[in-house]
Specification:
80% helix, mainly alpha, 264 residues
Length: 264
């Protein structure tokens, strides 16, 4: 049985979920409509960005509904008591199962590797991502901290592998980029590390002595902020890189695209 939340605790999570729905929906429209302002070969990457935030928008809708159904306001005390309908963490993990491999598709496409090599890289990273998410889930839904710690540790192995490989590959890709793009790719690499690193930290909260309900709130806010940055924020970086490359590779095409976008 879950403990009651204070009205502040309930409402802050409620507001963050709501904010996230708005951010994902706005990003969806932006990525779709800005496809015209990049060269044709970069359009698939923007389409994948819009898929990622579209899928996340849908899942946050469900997460938001689940959170609302899990608690009800006790007018006598002003706190939010569990209704008995459990909050469903599976929506979030189902979302990651779809969106993390798609984010990897975007990342690998930025590397612009020869086809067979990028196929192999994408396959091994995706397998690692699925293992990371599938092994994190039993820990997430467990009410026992030892179980949470064990699955968390297992899930960290593929996580470290993914970051290690991406860091190396993005580093090598830096040398293949024109000067103006290099700094963008470098920033993107930091964004990945900074945002993906938030997930295991949020997961750890219940294990590092943060009390029950504060940990519950902290985990949800941590994941939500990380999702906005890792999906919408990351998509904006991809757009920026694609836009810059379009201009560098063919200044005329860049201008024509800008004009088209302005007229659209
Ligand atoms: C859009 C969603 C993204 C980028 C999700 C990323 C999720 C992770 C990097 C999760 C990692 C975890 C660990 C490394 C250990 C504990 C369990 C997880 C699944 C939270």
């Amino acid at each position: 049985m879950q403990a009651s939340l204070s009205s502040g605790q309930f409402e802050i999570v409620y507001t963050f979920f709501s904010l996230c729905i708005a951010a994902m929906a706005a990003a969806f429209v932006f990525f779709l409509s800005s496809r015209q302002s990049v060269a044709a070969k970069y359009r698939p990457a923007l389409l994948v960005s819009s898929l990622v935030v579209g899928i996340a928008c849908y899942h946050y809708f469900r997460i938001f509904g689940s959170w609302s159904a899990a608690y009800s306001l006790d007018l006598a005390t002003g706190s939010y008591n569990p209704t008995g309908i459990p909050f469903n963490d599976a929506y979030r993990y189902a979302d990651w199962l779809l969106t993390v491999p798609l984010l990897l598709v975007e990342l690998v496409s930025v590397l612009a590797l020869p086809k067979p090599q990028s196929g192999r890289l994408l396959t091994s990273l995706s397998i690692a991502a699925v293992i990371m998410i599938a092994t994190g889930f039993p820990g997430e839904v467990s009410h026992d901290n030892t179980t949470r710690a064990i699955w968390g540790a297992v899930s960290t192995v593929p996580f470290v592998y993914i970051l290690f490989v991406l860091w190396g590959e993005l580093g090598k890709a830096l040398d293949r980029q024109p000067e103006v793009v290099r700094v963008l790719v470098r920033n993107m690499r930091l964004l990945i590390l900074g945002t993906w690193g938030v997930y295991p930290i949020a997961y750890l909260l219940p294990l590092i002595g943060v009390n029950g309900t504060s940990a519950r709130v902290g985990v949800q806010i941590g994941y939500t902020l990380a999702d906005i940055a890792a999906k919408a924020g990351f998509g904006v970086m991809i757009y920026w890189i694609a836009r810059t490359k379009t201009e560098v590779e063919s200044p005329a095409a860049g201008e024509a695209a800008t004009t088209r976008a302005a007229l659209a």
